[in-house]
């Protein structure tokens, strides 16, 4: 469950200070009384631990607020630059890297060219990140890496990513050796779900979906405040739900199969449909189609509407399976959501059981560095890792936090 909402396990031992830091990072300035309630600690423990955290420059006392009785309560807040995490999102042609402070503020952002198909691709990634780490000071807590594929666990970081040409790639071990810091690795959509847990809807909801539309179609599943990863780290690959009808042409998918949802409504799938219908030229892309739809081209708008309808029907099946409180839509594709939505809403609601038809769907504005910020959240969420997803790597992050 979400520790920040006060529903999680009571932290003990070395988790108490990092639990307090994590709560302040997610909820903002908070009184000692509310910290005690939120983490299930005694007021005396909170007083003792926060005194030490203040002395070490991790948190600070802020203004007073009125109390229901007695003297006004003093709020505590993070010294947000007391610790930072590095986040990296790996794509088919570049690596996006951000430095993120404890409260989620992106301090710096950069993109570097990268070829994941190169024979020494993993070693090269290690060199890129080691150089970025060398430019930081000793406040670095760890490195989070998001990849478009299945990851066996955040702690080990063995990756199968067909779109990158990686099979059983030892990303975690190689990067840890190259960088010399804790490294956590996960599916890129799961990292966005982790960021929502810290800084978004996960502060108010313990069961939700983060669905991304863009080059592919992905889904991060959060149940009881924790990311559900499945038996082999591949949960949430809704882009590979088969949606073709017998007797119809089945478009090829990057996974090696055909007729997958992603093959129809991923960026290339939509562009392929648009080229076949001559809504765009033979070299046209999804961006070309979006420009046409924005200028009022009915054929272009219809293609997006059909894609929205297909997404709605597929997502309804996921809702029936997982039963989330809320769905968040993100990714590069939300730039054209107004055109997807005309097909999505009626299809989605109509396909749901009556008891599920009111499930909220939130569309979040998108920026490129959100992927990398999500990866950094793997590190910043380590104080909440009661399920042990990060294993030894999460423990090492907490140890670094303890010695700030």
UniProtKB/TrEMBL annotation:
Taxonomy, superkingdom: Bacteria
Span of domain HTH crp-type: 22-77
CDD domains (alphabetical): ASKHA_ATPase_ROK_CYANR
Disordered, as annotated region: 385-404
Gene3D superfamilies in UniProt: 3.30.420.40, Winged helix-like DNA-binding domain superfamily/Winged helix DNA-binding domain
InterPro entries: ATPase_NBD, HTH_CRP, HTH_MarR-typ, ROK, ROK_cs, WH-like_DNA-bd_sf, WH_DNA-bd_sf
Family label: Belongs to the ROK (NagC/XylR) family.
Name listed for the protein in its UniProt record: ROK family transcriptional regulator
Organism lineage string: Bacteria, Bacillati, Actinomycetota, Actinomycetes, Propionibacteriales
């Amino acid at each position: 469950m979400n520790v920040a909402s006060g529903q999680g396990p009571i932290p003990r031992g070395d988790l108490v200070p990092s639990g307090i830091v994590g709560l302040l990072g997610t909820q903002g300035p908070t009184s000692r009384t509310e910290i005690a309630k939120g983490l299930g600690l005694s007021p005396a423990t909170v007083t003792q631990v926060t005194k030490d955290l203040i002395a070490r420059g991790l948190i600070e006392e802020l203004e007073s607020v009125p109390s229901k009785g007695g003297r006004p309560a003093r709020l505590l807040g993070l010294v947000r630059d007391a610790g930072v995490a590095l986040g990296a999102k790996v794509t088919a042609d570049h690596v996006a890297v951000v430095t993120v402070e404890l409260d989620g503020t992106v301090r710096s952002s950069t993109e570097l060219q990268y070829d994941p198909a190169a024979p020494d691709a993993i070693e090269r990634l290690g060199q890129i990140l080691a150089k970025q780490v060398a430019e930081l000071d000793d406040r670095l807590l760890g490195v989070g890496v998001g990849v478009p594929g299945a990851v066996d666990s955040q702690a080990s970081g063995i990756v199968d990513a067909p779109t990158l040409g990686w099979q059983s790639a030892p990303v975690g071990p190689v990067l840890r050796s190259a960088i010399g810091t804790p490294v956590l690795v996960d599916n890129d959509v799961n990292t966005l779900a982790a960021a929502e847990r810290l800084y978004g809807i996960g502060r108010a909801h313990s069961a939700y979906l983060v669905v991304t539309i863009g080059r592919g179609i992905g889904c991060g599943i959060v149940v009881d405040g924790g990311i559900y990863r499945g038996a082999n780290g591949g949960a949430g690959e809704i882009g590979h739900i088969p949606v073709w009808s017998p007797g119809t042409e089945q478009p090829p998918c990057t996974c090696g199969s055909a007729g997958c949802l992603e093959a129809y409504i991923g960026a290339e799938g939509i562009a392929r449909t648009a080229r076949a219908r001559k809504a765009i030229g033979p070299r046209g892309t999804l961006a070309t189609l979006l420009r046409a739809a924005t200028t009022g081209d009915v054929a272009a708008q219809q293609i997006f509407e059909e894609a929205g309808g297909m997404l709605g029907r597929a997502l309804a099946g996921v809702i029936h399976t997982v039963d989330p409180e809320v769905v968040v839509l993100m990714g590069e594709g939300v730039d054209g959501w107004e055109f997807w939505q005309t097909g999505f809403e009626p299809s989605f609601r109509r396909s749901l059981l009556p008891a599920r038809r009111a499930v909220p769907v939130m569309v979040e504005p998108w920026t490129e560095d959100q992927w990398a910020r999500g990866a950094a959240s793997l590190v910043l969420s380590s104080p909440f890792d009661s399920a042990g997803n990060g294993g030894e790597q999460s423990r090492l992050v907490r140890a670094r936090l303890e010695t700030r």
